[in-house]
Amino acid sequence: MSVSETVVHEADSPFGAVYVVDVGDQRTLRFDSPEGTLQSAILKSDPLAVPTSYVRVATAGLALTEGRARILVVGLGGGAFPMLMHRILPRRSRVDVVEINPVVVDVARRFFSVREDARLHISVEDGADFMARQGPRYDLILLDAFWDHGTPDHLKESLFFQDVRRRLEPGGVAVLNIALEEQWSVASRIETFARAFEDCAMLRGASRYSNLILVGTQTPLPSDALFWQQLWRLARELDFPVLMESVMTFERVKVSS
């Protein structure tokens, strides 16, 4: 028996229609149509759950950064990742979010339990403009900005990734979520991202349909064995045991000369 879908909210925005669709216990954010690609999800019965695989895999980026004081997320969606960081990181940590679409911000607040406070701040502006300015540096930057058919082109360019690297703290890590891409373009995206950093690796979740997560660092990545040790310690430190079963592969990216 298929699970019924209910549109609980729809709104026009400067970047197309935004929909909130309930699928059984799961509340989802979709763009352009109620049948559009799932952008974010929560469980209504357990708002603290993390049902979206890529959010858990992206969290593994914390195993590669020396600091946890300041996190930046480009692309709010339903706010799953920033709210998770707000919940599991120490109280002295701060999470900044940049989202270009004011309607998405309104929907995240009204339907996905996103709450700003002294530790979580949302700016409504273009992620590239934010990154190009002088400003604070971050221990982890997650690049998670999407329209219905993928990432905006100007957030795929090498200049943007150079600005991302410049905004990292020494020892920081950039995390890129790649989804909704034609297969022929994925290799180019990986190459462009990897060239901006000293070292780069791909992370994947358990499902073969999982988003591809890239991590870029300013210093050489740890060995495979050391990465898994660091991930295990991170899961214990954050009391987030599902992290270990969420990440299935850690594969270095080799950039062509």
UniProtKB/TrEMBL annotation:
Catalytic residues, chain numbering: 144 (proton acceptor)
CDD domains: AdoMet_MTases (cd02440)
InterPro entries according to UniProt: PABS (IPR030374), SAM-dependent_MTases_sf (IPR029063)
Keyword Lipid metabolism: no
PABS domain residues: 1-233
PANTHER family listed in its UniProt record: THERMOSPERMINE SYNTHASE ACAULIS5
Name of protein: Spermidine synthase
Gene source species: Archangium gephyra
Lineage: Bacteria, Pseudomonadati, Myxococcota, Myxococcia, Myxococcales
